[in-house]
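Tutorial handout. Part one gives the primary structure; part two gives the three-dimensional structure as tokens.
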Amino acid sequence: MEESVITPGTRGFIATAVVSAIIACSFFFSIVNREPIVGDGLDNLTIAKNIISYSSFSSSSPEKPDMAREPAWPALTAGVIRIASLEKIPVDVLSSRYFYVWKIINIFLYAISIGLAAAYLFSKIRSRIFLGLFLTVSLLLYGTMPRLINNFNNEALAALLALLSSMIFYEMMKGRLIDSRLFAPVLLGVFLGFLALTKAQFLYISFPLILILFVINKKKSLIVIFALLVVTAPWLYRNFTLFGDPAIAKRGKIVASVRVVLTAEPTAREHLCMAYAFSHPAIQSYMEPFLGIAQRDFSQGGKCQKLNREICFDMGSKRVHCAPFPEDAFSPDWASKIQYFYRGYYAGVQMEENKATFADITRFDFKFFKNYVKTLPLFAWRGFGFSDFPLLSVMISLSVFGLLFTSYWPFALLCVCSQLFHIFLTHNIPRYHVVEFPVLIFSAIYLLWLFWHHYFRFINLFGRKSPHGKKADFPD
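Part two.
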């Protein structure tokens, strides 16, 4: 059994985390731009302002409360507005003149995640070389995805909560925190609860962790469930009371509807278009001779026109833009829209308003199941492409599955479940996996260290066998 991290070595852990976070902060400040907060980030600011000024959770007019988004990120934003005495500043000014405030929050949260993951890795392998490699890979990936810093979305908070939840679950499963009668399971339940209030899908993604814990220790698992419900139940009750929907946020049916349409409607010929569109922009040109598909085929009238929206890419330093066709933008009927994304999106909107059901979109018969199986590898492939290093991103994404075959499987489990959730149930755009980045990078570097330790131990990088015969500490 490993030595607990709650020891005098805690000082070194904190020092490593702080230094790593400062390095990350310094780097992130160099990629901040002066563009205002728009899109989803502007919605979050609007909700936060309505919370402060009108005690209303609304993404539009304060007299019309809604459940359009998860509450944790706007609530945090509202707290910042209150602390910074910005209550009287209009939303449009908050998003433009005060853009730096919100981008600093992103920097701070992402840096904490990197610092904690770096310190946690170092506490396990005791290698400065691989610690440096972890920081290098982290900065390479985060640094070539400027939208993470410059867009005010909730991934920054979710990534930190997912990392903390994974660390606590690992420590409990390894026997270091399981002896705590209340503290550890309550803490895990609270973190998972706030994670669900930040990213609603984690209310379901967390279930395998609780189930495994239930098999090992029923009492602890029930405490986790109770703590999770204490955090989430008030919000679920609020939405059920006001909207008749005991969910954390809307939009779940929209995402599912997009996946259903992209599964049911494309033809076998259009599957080649999907393979092209779902690949990282940096490698699409290399696929053209094999697929017989080119960028021009996605323009209106081209053989891939119905998948034009799928070539959008905002997870690198260069953004690939796309837009709806006029029929997609102005047609009132979802079924008459050209592109599959917009057909699915507006059908999902109808379902959120209880004006349609999944049965109105397609028949869930053998043909649908066959298309689902055929497109499953395409959707899996899509989620692995981010940053300016597509091959590195694929290796890092797959590493978390590899970690399942080591003693660190509890640390990987939450993010593996997240990967599988999006692969099987959503349209799995790369942005959905930002939440997993700290754990993904940890997994890749740990597996690389493990490989080096087993096959190149004669090269003295770890101090396993010094000239004086001293041995370093190694994990189980």
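Part three, for discussion. The CA atoms of residues 328 and 337 lie 5 Å apart. Residues 99-125 form the longest helix (27 residues).
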